[in-house]
């Protein structure tokens, strides 16, 4: 390998991380730290002479100032060019402007009121001011904490980003150099430090962020310890600015919310609402070539002025456009955090940064990675809400929808960048599919759950709260079981119906000689009081009302695979929707076979044609534990030939869709439901078969009703089909 070229008086190779300046005489390059030239000073040098050339050619030549209102102060001051942001003329004009008072939009609150529960209920849409930091859970150094103390805790050799306010340009310098500048009697420039993140320093031990920022932070709640990407540290910033420091209008990276606390000094915030119109104007202004010459506050309807004095904490929500003026020397602490309340706005701000081609230095670190982690956790949150039969808050549903759209866009080839931020252990397409499935599920059940009076449930719970909730639930269930074991109660209609189902299924598994000639709904195993209640209930037409997949009496979950109802005993009446024409045995077999396969019942052909089907008075069934398909039974006088079916346990794996199950009895070609038509897919096929079996069961002493799917209705129209087909005393 060739020997690397050496530079500077230190004779070291080129280091991209260190500032260097070229000598205009010898053309050699020198490290600024080696020749005592700061980066922000280099722009003021017109002709630079290195230490070697300085002895022969004299000192370096400096640029001459010709104006006070332009970033390039060497431009002629002929009055033809407008004032640019950050210059001394701009600051004087800004202080002379009048603005609407920030009290119009500022929420004055006690720190104890700013809780996660409050923000989830009322939203986090306007800035909040708190005057006592202790109530926020915020802990900071004492008010006499100085810039020198910062150097002592952080270290003077730490390289920090410094803004040259008059040029609105960023440069780097050591913290010790900034401290020297800060305490110098004559400050040749206005320098501002706003991005000193100190989480990895000793000063971090002196600062505890507000409770609300800690509890709601995506990074704190969702970032895994074993992540391949380094954890973002954006919660602890120290801001040190001298008088007349100015930061032009901006939105904090990734649409993060911000907390600011002025330890000493004073800052003035100019706040603009993140309305769609204002955001569109902001993007247009940010991409314009003359951005620094236009004061954005004049382009919007209202720009509010908010003065933040010593000891005050300001919380700024997602997306608020703001500029900051340091009216006197000031030290402040602050931090940024992403959260669940404004996911859509956060993503919109990030997409705006992408369109504006914002450098990575000024973007939230690994924003896309944290979104994937959040998506994975919110999927579990939605599943927990479904298991608890409660509806997540509207803001969370909207946020997940926006997140799904963003994640899907990031996976498209046109958008995907070479350095993908998809975590290795996450299957992105599967995750998006599952989130979409949960959202569709919520949309179907939203109206029904509201009609039942089921309110939204807490969406974000800490691990401790979840464990406490689980313990309380287990204790409540244990107490209920103990109470029930000592004080039996009369069974409800649902209990009677379930017991009847089990009894009928047992009878179906027995031989014909072991079962009674007719079915009844009296159970020998229940108490006398229970039996009496059962008789009264059945005499008055048993009603089973399903609302959104659960019975009308709260607390009883209906998880039934197959229900057999005795029509004669219950007196159920089916609305004659289907035509009165006779149905062929093959159609009957196909319909029942399809429904029983969905209900978890095995079906086989009848051996004999049942010619007297319409005149039958009873029913029987043939079953055998070994060779069911080879067993035959000749109906006795007065009986009707029966269709063979056998109850089988449903596996824990998701049931196959009817269109994907292997049919043990393929439908004949003469099937009228499909003759001349292309078979439909999905729930349409289930609907056809459901209509057939209900039609066929009009004249039977019992019929089989298959109820399948999750606790709440599936995404099809199954519940609608039930209401369409079943009327009267059964809904």
TrEMBL record:
GO terms for biological process: brain development. The keyword Zinc applies. Keywords: Chromatin regulator, Dioxygenase, Iron, Metal-binding, Neurogenesis, Nucleus, Oxidoreductase, Transcription, Transcription regulation, Zinc, Zinc-finger. Residues 5-56 form the PHD-type domain. GO terms for molecular function: histone H3K27me2/H3K27me3 demethylase activity; histone H3K9 demethylase activity; zinc ion binding. Its main location: nucleus. PROSITE patterns: JMJC (PS51184), ZF_PHD_1 (PS01359), ZF_PHD_2 (PS50016). Residues 616-633 have a biased composition (Low complexity). It is found in: Nucleus. GO terms for cellular component: nucleus. Belongs to the JHDM1 histone demethylase family. JHDM1D subfamily. This is Lysine (K)-specific demethylase 7Ab. It comes from Cyprinus carpio.
């Amino acid at each position: 390998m060739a020997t690397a070229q050496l530079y500077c008086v230190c004779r070291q190779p080129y280091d991209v991380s260190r500032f260097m300046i070229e000598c205009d005489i010898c053309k050699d390059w020198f490290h600024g730290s080696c020749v005592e030239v700061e980066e922000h000073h280099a722009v003021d040098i017109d002709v630079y002479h290195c230490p070697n050339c300085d002895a022969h050619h004299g000192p370096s030549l400096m640029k001459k100032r010709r104006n006070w209102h332009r970033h390039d102060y060497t431009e002629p001051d002929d009055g033809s060019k407008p004032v640019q942001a950050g210059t001394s003329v701009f600051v004087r004009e800004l202080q002379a402007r009048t603005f609407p008072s920030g009290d119009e939009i500022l929420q004055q609150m006690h720190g104890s009121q700013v809780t996660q529960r409050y923000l989830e209920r009322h939203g986090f849409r306007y800035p909040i001011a708190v005057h006592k930091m202790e109530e926020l859970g915020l802990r900071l150094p004492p008010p006499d904490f100085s810039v020198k103390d910062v150097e002592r805790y952080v270290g003077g050799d730490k390289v920090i980003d410094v803004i040259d306010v008059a040029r609105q340009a960023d440069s780097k310098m050591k913290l010790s150099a900034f401290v020297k500048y800060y305490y110098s009697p004559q400050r040749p420039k206005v320098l501002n430090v706003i991005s000193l993140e100190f989480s990895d320093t000793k000063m971090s031990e002196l600062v505890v962020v507000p409770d609300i920022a800690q509890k709601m932070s995506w990074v704190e709640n969702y970032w895994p310890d074993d992540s391949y990407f380094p954890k973002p540290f954006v919660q602890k910033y120290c801001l040190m600015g001298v008088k007349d420091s100015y930061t032009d209008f901006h939105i904090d990276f990734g649409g993060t919310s911000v907390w600011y606390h002025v330890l000493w000094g004073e800052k003035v915030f100019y706040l603009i609402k993140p309305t769609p119109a204002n955001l569109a104007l902001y993007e247009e202004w940010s991409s314009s070539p003359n951005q620094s010459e236009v004061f954005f506050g004049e382009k919007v309807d209202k720009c509010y002025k908010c003065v933040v004095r010593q000891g005050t904490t300001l919380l700024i929500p997602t997306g608020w456009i703001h500029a900051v003026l340091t009216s006197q020397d000031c030290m402040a602490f602050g931090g940024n955090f992403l959260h669940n309340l404004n996911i859509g706005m956060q993503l919109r701000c990030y997409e705006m940064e992408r369109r504006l081609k914002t450098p990575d230095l000024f973007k939230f670190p690994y924003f896309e990675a944290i979104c994937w982690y959040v998506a994975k956790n919110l999927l579990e949150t939605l599943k927990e809400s479904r298991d608890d039969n409660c509806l997540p808050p509207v803001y969370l549903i909207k946020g997940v929808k926006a997140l799904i759209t963003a994640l899907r866009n990031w996976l498209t080839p046109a958008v995907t960048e070479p350095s993908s931020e998809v975590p290795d252990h996450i299957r992105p397409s599967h995750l998006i599919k599952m989130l979409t499935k949960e959202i569709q599920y919520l949309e179907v059940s939203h109206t029904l759950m509201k009609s039942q009076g089921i309110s939204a449930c807490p969406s974000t719970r800490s691990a401790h709260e979840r464990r406490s909730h689980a313990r309380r639930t287990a204790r409540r269930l244990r107490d209920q079981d103990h109470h029930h074991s000592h004080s039996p109660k009369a069974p409800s209609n649902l209990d009677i119906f379930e017991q009847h189902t089990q009894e009928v299924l047992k009878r179906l598994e027995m031989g014909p000689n072991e079962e009674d000639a007719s079915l009844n709904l009296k159970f020998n195993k229940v108490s006398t009081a229970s039996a009496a209640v059962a008789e009264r209930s059945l005499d008055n037409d048993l009603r089973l009302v399903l609302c959104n997949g659960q019975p009308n009496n709260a607390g009883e979950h209906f998880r039934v695979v197959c229900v057999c109802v005795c029509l004669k005993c219950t007196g159920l009446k089916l609305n004659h929707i289907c035509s009165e024409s006779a149905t062929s045995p093959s159609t009957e077999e196909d319909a029942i076979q399809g429904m029983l396969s969905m209900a978890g019942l095995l079906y086989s052909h009848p051996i004999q044609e049942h010619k007297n089907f319409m005149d039958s008075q009873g029913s029987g069934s043939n079953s055998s534990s070994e060779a069911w398909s080879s067993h035959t039974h000749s109906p006795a006088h007065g009986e009707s030939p029966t269709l063979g079916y056998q109850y089988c346990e449903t596996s824990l794996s998701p049931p196959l869709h009817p269109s994907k199950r292997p049919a043990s009895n393929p439908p004949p070609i003469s099937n009228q439901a499909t003759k001349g038509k292309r078979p439909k897919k999905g729930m349409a096929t289930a609907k056809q078969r459901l209509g057939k079996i209900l039609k066929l069961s009009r004249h039977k002493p019992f019929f089989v009703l298959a109820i399948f799917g999750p606790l709440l209705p599936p995404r099809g129209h199954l519940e609608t089909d039930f209401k369409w087909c079943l009327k009267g005393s059964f809904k």
